[in-house]
Amino acid sequence: MKGDGDVIYGTGIDLTEIARIESMLQAGLKLPEKVLTPAELTVFQSYGQKRRAEFLAGRFSAKESYSKAFGTGIGAQVGFQDIEILDNALGRPAITKHPFDGPAWVSISHTDQLVMTQVILERGNE
């Protein structure tokens, strides 16, 4: 953070098993259409099978983390389509659309089996 008086509104962390997402994809469930915005879905469709599962698991987990930081969980107040995470010019994931009125920061990391994400929502002093 910048250190200019901003404070953390909320933080959320999530861990998702990539194999669970792969199973859902193989079962033909409409998880990508449910979780990903149209712009994210375009990126998802450009990848091969293994990378698709990693990408979807990362976005699913990051949106879960966001909803925890927001304080509501995924549901009526914040849905998967309300949050969009796209890579910036440097390849870093950035939250480009979300309902919170303030900066939102995301980190996505994965191994072969797991995706771990963290979201921090920041607000100015009131």
Question: Can you walk through the features of this model?
Answer:
The protein is of the alpha+beta class. The chain has a single domain, classed as Ribosomal Protein L22, Chain A. Helix content is 35%, strand content 29%. The protein contains 4 helices and 5 strands. It has helices spanning 18-26, 31-35, 38-45, 49-70, and strands at residues 7-17, 84-87, 93-97, 104-110, 114-123. The strands form 2 sheets. The chain has a 3-stranded antiparallel beta sheet. Strands 2-3 form a two-stranded antiparallel sheet. α1 (18-26) crosses α4. It is globular, with a radius of gyration of 15 Å. The two termini are 17 Å apart. The mean pLDDT is 92. It is an enzyme of class 2 (transferase). Its main location: cytoplasm. Its cofactor is Mg(2+). Keywords: Cytoplasm, Fatty acid biosynthesis, Fatty acid metabolism, Lipid biosynthesis, Lipid metabolism, Magnesium, Metal-binding, Transferase.
Write the layout of secondary structure elements.
Elements (H helix, E strand, L loop, with lengths): L6 E11 H9 L4 H5 L2 H8 L3 H22 L13 E4 L5 E5 L6 E7 L3 E10 L3
Antiparallel strand pairs: 1-5, 2-3, 4-5
Helix pairs in contact: 1-4
